[in-house]
């Protein structure tokens, strides 16, 4: 889904301030559970961007449902958001929030994230939109640092399939 | 973020859920604290008193009775001990209603999740794993190489002579043949059979017909879910037809990728023949979180470091994707998924295994580097021959690996009347099982009996029948570690917790993964036990039993804990979230027992 988001973000004319991400679309009659591409833009999309979105998304059912959730302020995973290119290396939490559209850090499993937390971005930051706010789930890591919940690379369960 | 939205179209992914590691979608749920209801008052009342006919019950009580009947907890269910089919504590245990007091079992340590050179991501000979298991004290083990095209075609067959040879050279170890099933629409699971003339053909037929990878059925869909149940039904048929003496299935690393939904687990449990009996309470790969500065791989404990995918169950919270004190969230959460299954009054047991592929600190390597198409020094090609070349010296100690040898860290203890393949399988189906990490304790013995009728008692996995209004004693006897573990230090048990939950019957929502009544009702400080000789018993009494309930125990070295996910009223000192890249498994040890059910029925004693 990062590829689809990147292909949309690469099109000149994507309005500044747009969010591109994905939400899980639950199975419904005739359509298995899958991910739906979401583009939230502050103004109507230019034709060339709309074409890129359509090309990246395919034609599966569930788009309307995802759109309704997005309109209500929920996107499961956001890959493109303002300031994402500045979220690299190790950052103070306040800098991470100042540099990007991410508005809050949420500790995994109810853990409190202190205001002076240090976040190792590992070069991979994928927040979610919750109640209209862009939030980043983080978990404790080595040396008292925090890292985003989502790892840059998923651990393959085995190489058999 | 205000403004219009555009182009929210779906995009479908293929069948290979695990091949698309960068594609995600998740829903987030926040845990909430709920108040525990004391069981002593008895919530089911006259519903469980079978001397009151249905016609005389209030509508509410009649409804509750129906729930209990549905769960197999009442009447005929209890007297039908040993009946095949219905999943209920009564049908589950060999001795429903309780054992004669003082029944003794031999506890055999084992591991049902071990890989060899017949897996595309592993490397050891069968004989290497059996020798290690024997060396590290295991009495039984299951060889579970990955299901897949090559394994189904040739590997499963070629493994068998190696297993037979290992049985001959290690007569003290029961070596089962199994496979790691790619459960259609879900995670992996151990499937194994009792030795016999058809052990290969049953496994091979099963794998070819029902493995998610072989059948291209890994992605989440109702059709693939049905294929999984069909696979379990096939195994039950093989047992019924006498083609194999027994077959069992256990879900492996169930919460790792969020793809084992609660309704799928319930579906496996409820499939015919009770082939599916439980899940890994703790996954393998327990060395994976050893920090890099301690010369470890610095990954996530259990390799539980992923995030949701397109195939994940949307209801699972993010914290379910991590281990807690080395255990899977389904098991480690008091009032969580495991407890919600037990609260149905149905059997579902937990185990702990190594998932050994390649061992942390070992010296040997796979000469082809796990390249399935490469030719090894002896000419073997995995995809052609079904196995890799034998391991070779790697030129130095291998610190990037996340696994332990079988028996080195994780143990599943099974209580049998006498040693034997079928006895181990029967005891696992009965739930007479407890698990530990790092040799935390030598022995755990749990007995439950009515205070006024002490001639009968139940132990792990059992169902004790008592009279309504009875007082019930729950006693745990722990024997501390008498010697060093395989890290060569003697662990010290600090605390034992008793978890108690009411049995509330079948659930309307098959995807529920919480239950409100289960909580830690008592903690026992064990720090003084060493000075008293190293063994001690602790008793908790449940007064005036009114409805069915279950009890289970866990114990810890007390080194890491945090308030449980559902709050301090439910679990004041639960296991802590394991820190990615900084999880020393030897400094965070736990044991867990399976539950004992207590089912009151009939009129109270002494009252008419």
UniProtKB/TrEMBL annotation, chain B:
Q: Which Pfam families match?
A: PHP (PF02811)
What CDD domains does UniProt report for this protein, alphabetically?
PHP_HisPPase
Enumerate the residue ranges of region (Disordered).
Answer: 1-38
Superkingdom classification of source: Bacteria
Q: Which residues form the Polymerase/histidinol phosphatase N-terminal domain?
A: 110-185
Q: What molecular functions are annotated in GO for this chain?
A: 5'-3' DNA exonuclease activity; 5'-3' RNA exonuclease activity
- Which portions of the chain have biased composition (kind: Basic residues)? 1-11
- Gene3D superfamilies listed in its UniProt record: Metal-dependent hydrolases
Basic and acidic residues compositional bias, start-end: 12-37
Q: What is this protein called?
A: PHP domain-containing protein
Organism, by scientific name, is Pseudokineococcus marinus
């Amino acid at each position: 889904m990062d590829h689809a988001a990147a292909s949309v973000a690469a099109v000149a004319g994507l309005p500044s301030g747009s969010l591109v991400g994905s939400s899980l679309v639950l199975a419904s009659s005739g359509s298995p559970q899958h991910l739906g591409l979401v583009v939230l833009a502050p103004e109507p999309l230019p034709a060339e961007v709309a074409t890129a979105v359509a090309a990246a998304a395919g034609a599966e059912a569930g788009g309307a449902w995802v759109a309704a959730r997005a309109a209500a302020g929920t996107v499961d995973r956001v890959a493109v958001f303002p300031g994402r290119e500045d979220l690299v290396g190790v950052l103070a939490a306040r800098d991470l929030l100042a540099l990007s559209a991410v508005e809050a850090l949420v500790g995994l499993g109810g853990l409190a994230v202190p205001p002076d937390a240090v976040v190792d971005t590992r070069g991979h930051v994928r927040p979610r939109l919750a109640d209209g706010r862009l939030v980043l789930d983080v978990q404790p890591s080595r040396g008292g640092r925090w890292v985003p919940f989502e790892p840059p690379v998923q651990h393959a369960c085995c190489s058999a399939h | 973020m205000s403004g219009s939205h555009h182009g929210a179209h779906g995009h479908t992914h293929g069948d290979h859920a695990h091949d698309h590691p960068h594609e995600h979608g998740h829903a987030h749920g926040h845990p909430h604290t709920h108040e525990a209801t004391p069981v002593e008052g008895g919530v089911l009342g006259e519903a469980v008193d079978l001397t009151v006919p249905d016609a005389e019950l209030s509508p509410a009580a009649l409804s509750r009775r129906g729930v209990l009947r549905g769960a197999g907890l009442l009447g005929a269910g209890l007297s039908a001990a040993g009946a095949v089919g219905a999943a209920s504590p009564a049908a589950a245990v060999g001795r429903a209603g309780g054992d004669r007091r003082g029944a003794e079992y031999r506890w055999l340590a084992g591991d049902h999740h071990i890989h060899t050179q017949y897996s595309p991501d592993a490397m050891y000979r069968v004989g290497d794993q059996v020798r290690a298991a024997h060396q590290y004290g295991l009495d039984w083990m299951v060889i579970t190489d990955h299901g897949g095209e090559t394994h189904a075609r040739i590997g499963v067959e070629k493994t068998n002579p190696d297993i037979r040879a290992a049985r001959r050279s290690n007569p003290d170890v029961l070596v089962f043949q199994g496979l790691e099933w790619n459960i259609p629409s879900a995670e992996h699971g151990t499937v194994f059979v009792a030795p016999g003339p058809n052990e290969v053909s049953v496994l091979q037929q099963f794998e070819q017909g029902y493995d998610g990878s072989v059948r291209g059925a890994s992605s989440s869909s109702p059709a693939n879910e049905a294929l999984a149940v069909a696979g379990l039904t096939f195994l039950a048929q093989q047992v019924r037809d006498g083609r194999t003496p027994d077959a069992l299935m256990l879900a492996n690393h169930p919460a790792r990728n969020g793809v084992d939904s609660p309704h799928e687990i319930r579906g496996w449990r409820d499939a015919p023949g009770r082939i599916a009996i439980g899940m890994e309470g703790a996954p393998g790969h327990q060395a994976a979180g050893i920090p890099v500065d301690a010369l470890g791989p610095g990954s996530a404990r259990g390799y539980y470091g992923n995030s949701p995918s397109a195939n994940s169950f949307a209801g699972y919270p993010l914290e379910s994707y991590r281990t807690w004190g080395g255990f899977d969230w389904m098991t480690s959460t008091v009032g969580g998924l495991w407890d919600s299954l037990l609260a149905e009054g149905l059997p579902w047991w937990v185990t702990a295994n190594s998932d050994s592929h390649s061992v942390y600190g070992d010296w040997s390597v796979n000469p082809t580097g796990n390249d399935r198409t490469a030719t090894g020094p002896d000419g073997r090609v995995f995809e052609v021959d079904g196995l890799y070349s034998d391991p070779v010296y790697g030129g130095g100690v291998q610190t990037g690996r996340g696994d332990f040898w079988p028996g080195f860290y994780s143990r599943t203890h099974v209580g049998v009347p006498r040693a034997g393949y079928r006895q181990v399988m029967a005891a696992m189906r009965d739930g007479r099982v407890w698990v530990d990490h790092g040799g935390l304790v030598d022995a755990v013995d749990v007995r439950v009996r009515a205070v006024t009728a002490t001639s009968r008692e139940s132990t792990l996995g059992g169902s004790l029948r008592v009279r309504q209004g009875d007082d019930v004693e729950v006693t745990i006897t722990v024997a501390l570690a008498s010697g060093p573990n395989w890290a060569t230090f003697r662990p010290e048990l600090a605390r034992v917790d008793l978890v108690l939950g009411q049995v509330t019957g079948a659930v309307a929502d098959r995807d529920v993964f919480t239950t409100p009544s289960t909580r830690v009702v008592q903690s026992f400080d064990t720090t003084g036990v060493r000075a008293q000789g190293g063994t001690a018993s602790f008793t908790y009494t449940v007064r005036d039993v009114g409805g069915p309930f279950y009890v289970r125990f866990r114990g810890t070295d007390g080194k890491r804990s945090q308030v449980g996910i559902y709050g301090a009223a439910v679990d004041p000192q639960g296991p802590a979230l394991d820190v990615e890249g900084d999880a020393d498994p030897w400094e965070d040890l736990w044991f867990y027992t399976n539950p004992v059910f207590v089912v009151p029925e009939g009129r109270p004693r002494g009252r008419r």
